Amino acid sequence: MVNEDVEKPLIEHILELRSRIIRISIFFVVLLIVILLYFSKKILNTLMNYLPKVDIAAFSVVEGFYALFYISAVISIILTIPYALYELYLFAKPGLYEHERVFIKRLLISSGFLSIFGLILSLKLIIPITVTILSLYTSERVELILSIKNYVKFLVSISFLVCIILQTPIALTLLIKYKILNVNILKRYRIFVYLIFFVIFNIISPEPSFIVSLVLTTLTIIIYEASLLLLRRIFHASQ
Fold first, then answer.
1. Which residue has the higher pLDDT, 227 or 133?
2. Taking the model in full, what pTM does it have?
3. Where does residue 187 rank: exposed (0-12), middle (13-18), buried (19+ CB within 10 A)?
4. Given 159, 180, 211, which residue is the final one in a domain?
5. If phi over 0 gives left and psi between -120 and 50 gives alpha, with beta otherwise, what is residue 207?
6. Same domain, 110 and 213
7. Phi/psi at 198 (nearest 5 deg)?
């Protein structure tokens, strides 16, 4: 069996990291081109179905291309992240103990599943609920028309934020695993966590309104509380 713990010169580590970054970059660019040329229109047509009661319009020639490119870029980033994490894992693997390798593999797999679930959840539930609530405050005499640029930005941004929220169990697991914080502290100060997230959602959400922030914060509370309940049982059982 090859000994992976043999130290390598610093220059070899730098060259290896450089080659992995280049592979990640090539993977992203190829993926972006393929999606933009062959799949972006089909994806956009599918996404149009999630707001059936809203008219979508392009107010400039550039907006159509922007929407296709934006969709392609975001999907490429999402699909590249697992590959990038895997490359970084391979880079760090020789310096990890066996139990650390198993832990990181499980964490990466869980993160991938949570991202996919977050994307489905946002498209099937979060976005329709948010749009429905927002439309209740629009006069019946006002016809709601969205530009394709703003629509795609809204859809993708909400989906991305939901995927980030779904990574809460991963973040809490790392904090508890490496004894940065414990379950009791995370539970005691959770109100402050919710307030911080609510403020952040007001700042970075595509439609900075109370409704959008409230929906996202509610989802955060559900995931956070469920994570604490699960992690308390897991780490209590392991002690």
1. 227
2. 0.80
3. middle
4. 159
5. beta
6. no
7. -60, -45
Q: How far apart are CA 134 and CA 131, in angstroms?
A: 5
98-106 long-range Cβ contacts below 8 angstroms, 24+ apart = 103/177
Q: Is residue 49 located within the same domain as residue 106?
A: yes
pLDDT tens track for 4-48: 555 678 888 889 999 999 999 999 999 999 999 999 888 888 777
How many Å apart are CA 85 and CA 91, to the nearest integer? 10
Q: How far apart are CA 7 and CA 199, in angstroms?
A: 46
Residues 134 and 34 in one domain: yes
Retrieve residue 179's tokens.
């004894």
pLDDT of residue 10: 80
